[in-house]
Model the fold of this input.
Amino acid sequence: MHITLATIALVAQLAAALLLLTYRRNGARHRRHVSWLAWLLVVVLGGSSIELALHAKQVGIFEAGKAVLLSLFVLCARGNVARLLRSDAP
Done:
């Protein structure tokens, strides 16, 4: 079972990192702190994917769920990290 969960986590992490890497601004403002945060997110996701691919460890349901949720958040924001940080509360 842990191989299935590891594969799910690996695919989710790679999908999120790929979406962040292929983000296009399309006229959006450049914010330096958001760019650094996006870079850090790509590094962490990529490093975690490499570690997961090289060292098959016991992956639980919560770690796989965490990877899928993070991937869904990035997908809903269409790779825009500033949109992940924005608060729309009045």
Remarks:
- The chain has four helices and no strands.
